[in-house]
Amino acid sequence: MIRYMKLYYLFCKQNLKVMMEYRMDFLLGVLSVMLQQFAGIFFVKIVFDHIHELNGWTFYEILFIYGIAATGRSIHHIFFDNLWTLGWQYIRPGKFDRLLIRPINPLFHFIADRLQQDGFGQLFIGIIVISTAMPHLDISWGVLEFAILVVMIIASGFIFVAINLFFATLSFWMVDSLPIVWTIFNLSDFARYPLTIYHKGIRYLLTWIIPYGFTAFYPAAYFIEGSGFEKLALLTPIIAVISCIAAYWFWNRGLRAFTSTGS
């Protein structure tokens, strides 16, 4: 474990050096993601300029859900963004073969190969949105509440990672599963809003099949009194662990099935 921590530090250090060589690209990437997130928040604000509540949820409660979604997603965006590239950048051109002959875990090497600066913009927006919403919620914030919020956000991030890893692994059979990964990832946009506004079939899908509900809605519902989902929200870290185990198991199945493209 210590060896991998040292290795990851070296990978990150190298990636940061590359980012600093192109500082304007770094800043433009961060700002573009921030603007993209602001556009989504602006849309919600326009809606609430015409209504007071959305199926019983206030503007600041939805803003809180949105903030948790953005912050959790930023963990995936910054540290695990390379999952998007498995098929078209590694397997198809034959670059994945080099990871298999090195004396470290190929999944670790694959993930550590890239640090995505754009995710910092998403992280900043998530923190700003959560900080904006918190004073308007009827919650007494103490050390325990903040600790639980941090755990929920980290768990949210790893659920994003697990789902992307699971579907990216299909590239071992399909060469490039990016269209499927992208389609599944777009479902996470539903979790930025209260799941109670959707049909029960969609709620079931986003809770127990592809658990994006645990990336934002359920963690936020834990803190909102009267939401009715406090007990279910406590499953968030457990869902994160189960999802990661399932995704890693599927990854190993994919590795055994992998055949080099020979490019």
Architecture overview:
InterPro entries: ABC-2_transporter-like. Keywords: Membrane, Transmembrane, Transmembrane helix. This is ABC-2 family transporter protein. Pfam families: ABC2_membrane_6. With about 260 residues, the protein is mainly alpha-helical. It has one domain. It has 14 helices and no strands. The protein has helices at about 1-20, 25-50, 60-80, 85-90, 95-100, 105-110, 120-135, 145-170, 170-175, 180-185, 200-210, 215-225, 230-235, 235-255. α2 (about 25-50) runs antiparallel to α3 (about 60-80) and α8 packs parallel to α14 (about 235-255). It is globular and about 55 Å long. It starts with a helix and ends in a 6-residue tail after the last helix. The mean pLDDT is about 90.
Shape: globular
User: Structural class given helices, strands, pairing?
Assistant: mainly alpha
The residue-averaged pLDDT reads 90
Note the run of SSEs as H and E.
HHHHHHHHHHHHHH
**How is the biggest beta sheet arranged?**
none
Distance between the termini: 34 Å
% residues in beta strands: under 5%
- pLDDT below 50 for ≥5 consecutive residues: which ranges? none
**Helix count, per DSSP?**
14
Percent of residues in helical segments? 55-70%
Number of domain modules? 1
- Using the CA coordinates, give the radius of gyration: 19 Å
